[in-house]
Amino acid sequence: MTSYFNSAIIVKPVSGQPHAGPADVRTDPNLTRIDMHDSALQNQLQLLCDEPDFQILRARLNRFDPFKALKVERYELRHTTTLAWLLDPQQTHGLGDSFLRAFLHDIRDAAGQAMLGAGQPLIGHVAVQPELRLSGGQLHAPVTDDTGGAVAAARMTGELDVLIESETWAVAIEAKIDSREGQWQLRDYGQYLKARFGGRKRLALLYLTVQPETDVIEENPDWTGIQWGGHAVTALRSSLKSHYGSDPQQALASCPADARALCEFLHGYLDLLDRLGDTLHGVADTVQKLADRYYGALGALKKALRQCEDEGLPVLPWSTQPSWSGRYWADRQLFDILVGRMRSPEAGFAAAVVERVFAPAAMPLNRFGSGINSATVRFVPQQWMDWQVGQDDRRAPLHTLMHYHVAFRNVQRDIEIKLLLPRSLDHDLQVRLVEQLLTLEKARGSASLQPKAPYLGDFLEPTGKSLKLYTDSLAWRLDGTDLALVDGADDRIAAFWHAVAEHTALLEKILSTDAR
């Protein structure tokens, strides 16, 4: 069997730059297009296993885990059922409303709106409904609007995982572990929920996944992406700390005998969520560093495993062909995690450039994240997360209507930075906002918005198309196996942040006027 190394990326800073964020990505010539026989792959895997960081990660993974032993650690239904149980303040977990309160507080920044008022009671004032079945355009669970009338739901099948509802707000959660969003699933769920609640309740639509799924959120901008290992873990850790203290062992020792099993389960589940994303909580940077350093070896392993599967060749601990079987089998969980963290040189380069772009920012930023192997990032200034865009009785968080988008472009040989209005169910709100921005910009005599006329005309029609309201780019060059930004990048970055300040000032003026 023959395989090849792919290029291993190394991120390095450029000396002499005023903002010393990483900017160049270089491929290691020793790991480029090596003809990979079984013995070569075995040697490379052994080198990876000998890394001190690999051995630290191995020790963390080898701890006993009853959830893993029972094979429920990635069982989606079990997780969503447990999540709904924890969110319901009247369930038997003993946490009261602390997990729900912490969860709602934690999603505030992600969802761009606060659900809870100061001191708002939850117990007896919220309904948590898991697994709402949707079929044939009708919800099997009782679904009515606030006046008691039925709400139609077109082209709907499946189940909404969790709905949390109070008299003034609702939070819908669609959760995934290893599966992906079904065709039109989020769009249809979102349309149904907006029709049901309209402007009567504040509505947050949350897409809960193991890793950020930027492509899904970009296609469904009404939904906000959150992560099991981030938002769910943060809320559960906060809740457990308030009830049991920060030390799990001390908590177990001090628990009454009849509460010890529950305490142990809750702390064990927290530990499971920590590891669910294969990020090995607290050492995600170490995992990514190893995956980047051994990009070639991991790429060869991935290709070899696929070839074995295609040829029906078993990879078992006692196999002698391929010769690397035993080495892979001994640490297959960690190898699989590292393979899952592989990112292309383009994605690594884009990540390095984003850090350099962010370095001189004079304001806090909210980054929506990207897939591990995605050469794109979305973000907005933190201030934007508190702003709402409204017309009549309709309102939507600003960041669901527009955001900055950074993307690696191969044909154009640049990193594009744009202020994007993506396709949205609230297209009419987007159109009104753009018209207000362009009118105010003209009155102020600034030139920070640069929509191209043909695209602007298409956007202003009720077609639901996206629009680049502002665009700039950072050109890159390729010298041999090196990727690097061309000279003058820092001047372009400074100009971009000047434009961001102008955009923020325009938005603040418009939205403060609307609020009055």
Automatic annotation (TrEMBL):
<dbReference type="Pfam" id="PF14281">
    <property type="entry name" value="PDDEXK_4"/>
</dbReference>
<protein>
    <recommendedName>
        <fullName>PD-(D/E)XK nuclease family protein</fullName>
    </recommendedName>
</protein>
<dbReference type="InterPro" id="IPR029470">
    <property type="entry name" value="PDDEXK_4"/>
</dbReference>
